[in-house]
Design brief:
The complex is a heterodimer of chains A (510) and B (306). With 510 residues, chain A is an alpha+beta fold. Chain A has 16 helices and 19 strands. In chain A, the strands form five sheets. In chain A, strands 11, 12, 13, 14, 15, 16 and 17 form a seven-stranded mixed sheet that branches. In chain A, strands 1-10-9-8 form a four-stranded mixed sheet, covered by helices on one side. A four-stranded antiparallel sheet of chain A has the order 4-5-7-6, with helices on one face. Chain A is globular. Chain A starts with a helix and ends with a strand. By secondary structure, chain B is mostly helical. The radius of gyration of chain B is 24 Å and the shape is flat. The chains are: A alpha+beta (510), B mainly alpha (306). At the A-B interface, helix 1 and helix 7 of A face helix 5, helix 7, helix 10 and helix 11 of B.
Chain lengths: 510, 306
């Protein structure tokens, strides 16, 4: 038996030695961690936020958002102009090369969009660009986009499309592209160990500012407590989605600190005004207003969320184009809430069903739900709570029109900083995620997306927000704030669009 | 011994066919796979096309035969989620899990054998009580809690070990201890009771009477017999160990097959679930076969009596 034990131990040691060991020095390596991995390395073929983030490191976009000003600025494009209401001309940067050495030209832009727009390819990103009818090559560095009617979000949406290589699309094909990204971006992928780690190396031929760190490792660590332990022990440099109650632990560690940023995501309780899941009390405007007046959201943000939220008057986020700063949010007024409920025929209170979501998107969602329900109870709502532990189940119910009279929902705008990106998907009659239906609002939404005149669009959205506020479409909560954990060895500014850019990280100045 | 082995192999074949049927059924008991695969706005034509494409229009035994013959060749179809062959995905992640469970098993034995024998020989002493307390504590400790405590102590406070990940021998220490601590208590209790029982047997008295050194009495005569229930239970516990591996892999960001399977279930990625279920079941079956063989070798009564 002793011999057997010795043998087993010996085997174990050999196994350990055979396994690959780390190579580069820690000094020149930046380590970022994500809680879950991407499904592929072909960003237009993925719905995951992680795919967008990884895409930014290996690929480039025609336009990108400036992290400081939050404005969209040219990137692989150098300029864009609209020649008429349905044609955009885009000039391309010269001297840019893909990782395989081929130069970037208008053929690549056309091939990229042709691939995404081809309905038989079933690319996830197709919906983002459905308004684009086609791309025409004018010369090597000029392309024209034809759109289906005026398309004011054209430039915003350019930030959501990576530029892939015509040669790779033609010669290597779809299958190959799922695991082998060839971009023009600041880093090149060296190795992908699925659900474990991505190893990247700096693209020394990059046309733009080169990243400070030569090596980038992106580790997949599913457990939040482990992620935080890695940050505190120096194993990882940047983590995201730090829970509010862990901020103190990180800030007092001497090893790392937290950074916060408002992010483009608005949290609400959707109310079934459209009666998609059957008759319910919220089809009456007075009941919806009563719900909005019942809850003290300011107190919840301050005491439950540690200040990590920005109050909103409607679903429109303060960072989105079209937001109306003049519109003030509902203030808690229990007497008025009770009065409205009585007027609506519920003097003795009213029963409502609340489908609650799991804590995957909104921080501390259970605690904030507790507080909201407590406030609603004071005003006379008898809330029956139903917890749905799996987000995909909740999403399926919502799409199916089975989400009930009230449910948790937040909207990330697909990272498009424009009021249209929430109004159309979440408030328009008949859309998958909308439980509100009001032809007057639909008119405004259509007006807003049918002109390129930004001044006129802003006016339309002010009207739309007034309508949504007065009609209390949903129970409006707050704009979310993200929390990042950042090692003290580096400098990093938390991004508002939830796209971490490791190529902007620099070592801390000593 | 040959007949004994042959009978075990025949039993194995039945079990394997049963497993393959269960794995095949996974796809069908959860509802209509085509509805799951297609977008909600898909029309009837597209439905019929997919139904045919997946071969779901054929009788169920034809479908099973196709599944089984492909599975034997390692073809479980493509992952619905990752667009790569399910077999490749599962195989890539199988080794880390096998390393982890083996290391956990070895750790458990390294803890359980000496402590179990010691507790048995010094029955009702302070050492015995201490071992009992340790066993109860070990059994009561949730794996994820122990894992996170180890990380906080050895990675965050002492900076001796990497907090998580996979790659060098240093990455092995905490996960294998965590998993070992989960299996050690029950093994230790078994070793203890086995040795106690055997130390009262007549043949031990005989061994002592003929003047054999106590060390040889314990190791050669007592321990060998005490091993039989321990080995059997370890074989049975291997499935439990895989369950423990799900948590251990998650806490330590270990790229194993256990977390892959749980993720696949969550994503409704059935080819991967089927492939993982079949391969893991095969491993458990193989281990139990090995256990039967070892036990048969150690104890002739079993192979004759069975």
């Amino acid at each position: 038996m002793r011999r057997a034990l010795a043998l087993a131990t010996g085997l174990l040691v050999i196994l350990a030695l055979v396994l690959p060991a780390g190579a580069q020095t820690r000094e020149e390596t930046l380590i970022y961690s994500l809680q879950s991995d991407v499904d592929n390395w072909d960003p237009p073929n993925s719905v995951l936020r992680e795919a967008i983030i990884l895409g930014y490191h290996v690929y480039d976009h025609l336009a990108v958002r400036d992290v400081k000003t939050r404005r969209v600025v040219p990137h692989l494009a150098t300029s864009w102009t609209n020649i008429d209401d349905t044609t955009w001309e885009v000039k391309l940067r010269q001297g840019v090369k893909f990782h395989d050495g081929t130069p970037f030209t208008s053929r690549d832009v056309k091939a990229t969009f042709d691939r995404v727009l081809d309905p038989t390819k079933k690319m996830t990103a197709r919906g983002n660009h459905a308004k684009i009818k086609g791309v025409d090559i004018i010369d090597d560095h000029t392309v024209r986009f034809r759109t289906d009617g005026p398309y004011p979000l054209f430039v915003e949406r350019l930030t959501a499309q990576v530029m892939q290589s015509d040669k790779v699309i033609r010669e290597k094909g779809h299958e190959w592209m799922q695991e082998n990204p060839v971009g023009t971006g600041p880093y090149k992928l060296v190795r992908w160990n699925r659900k474990q780690e991505h190893q990247l190396v700096r693209n020394d031929d990059y046309w733009g500012p080169k990243p400070a760190f030569k090596y980038l490792r992106i580790r997949i660590i599913p457990e939040k407590a482990t992620e935080i332990a890695e940050l505190l022990s120096g194993g990882v440099d940047i983590i995201k989605a730090v829970p509010p109650d862990q901020m103190d632990v990180i800030n007092k560690s001497g090893q790392a600190h937290t950074g916060t940023s408002p992010i483009l995501r608005t949290a609400m309780l959707q109310l079934d005004q459209a009666a998609r899941s059957g008759p319910n009390p919220f089809t009456d405007r007075r009941v919806r207003q009563a719900a909005n007046l019942a809850v003290d959201n300011d107190a919840i943000i301050k005491f439950v969320l540690n200040g990590l939220g920005d109050r909103v008057a409607t679903g429109v986020n303060p960072m989105a184009f079209g937001w109306d700063p003049g519109l003030k949010p509902y203030k808690q007024d229990l007497a008025q809430a009770k009065k409205l409920l009585a007027e609506a025929g519920h003097p003795n209170g009213v029963d409502v069903l609340f489908n609650e979501g799991p804590p995957v998107v909104e921080p501390a969602i259970q605690q904030t739900n507790d507080a909201i329900v407590a406030d609603m109870t004071k005003a006379g709502f008898r809330v029956k709570r139903n917890y749905i532990g799996d987000n995909t189940v909740l999403v399926a119910k919502i799409k199916d029109g089975k989400a009930g009279s009230m449910f948790n929902w937040s909207w990330g705008y697909y990272s498009v900083f424009d009021a249209d990106a929430i109004l159309f998907d979440v408030f328009k009659c008949g859309e998958n995620y909308s439980y509100y239906c009001n032809p007057a609002l639909d008119d405004l939404i259509i007006q807003g997306r049918s002109t390129l005149d930004q001044k006129k669009r802003a006016e339309v959205y002010v009207k739309a927000q007034k309508l949504l506020f007065d009609d209390a479409a949903y129970l409006y909560k707050w704009g979310l704030r993200g929390v990042w954990g950042i090692s003290n060895r580096i400098e990093y500014q938390a991004p508002a669009d939830e796209v971490d850019r490791m190529f902007l990280v620099t070592p801390k100045k000593k | 011994m040959k007949r004994y082995a042959l009978r075990q192999v025949l039993q194995l074949a039945v079990v394997i066919v049963g497993i393959s049927m269960l794995a095949f059924a996974i796809l069908h008991v959860i509802g209509d796979p085509v509805t799951l695969l297609l977008p909600q706005n898909a029309g009837k034509e597209e439905y019929a096309r997919y139904n045919k494409l997946l071969g779901l229009d054929k009788p169920i035994y034809v479908q099973y035969w196709k599944f089984a013959t492909r599975a034997v060749q390692g073809d479980f179809g493509k992952s619905w989620y990752a667009d790569t062959p399910a077999f490749k995905l599962v195989l890539e992640r199988m080794l880390p899990t096998l390393y982890l469970t083996t290391a956990g098993l070895v750790t458990a034995l390294l803890i359980a054998l000496p402590l179990g024998i010691l507790a048995a020989l010094k029955r009702h002493s302070f050492v015995d009580s201490l071992c009992t307390v340790a066993a109860v504590a070990g059994q009561a400790m949730p794996i994820f809690w122990l894992g996170i405590m180890l990380i906080i102590i050895f990675a965050v406070q002492l900076r001796l070990l990497p907090a998580s990940g996979y790659g060098t021998w240093r990455h092995f220490l905490m996960p294998s201890f965590t998993l070992g601590a989960f299996l050690a208590p029950i093994t230790m209790r078994l070793v203890r009771s086995g040795v106690i029982e055997i130390m009262n047997m007549e043949y031990i008295k005989t061994a002592r009477a003929k003047g054999l050194a106590e060390r040889l009495v314990v190791i050669k005569h007592a321990f060998r017999n005490a091993c039989i229930p321990v080995i059997t239970v370890l074989g049975l516990q291997f499935g439990q160990l895989l369950g423990g591996a799900v948590v251990t892999e998650t806490v330590f960001a270990w790229p194993g097959v256990a977390t892959l399977t749980v993720d696949a279930i969550r994503n409704q990625d059935f080819p991967v679930v089927q492939c993982a279920v079949v391969l893991l079941a095969l491993i458990i079956v193989a281990i139990n076969f090995l256990v039967d063989m070892i036990v048969g070798l150690i104890d002739p009564r079993i192979r004759v009596g069975a």
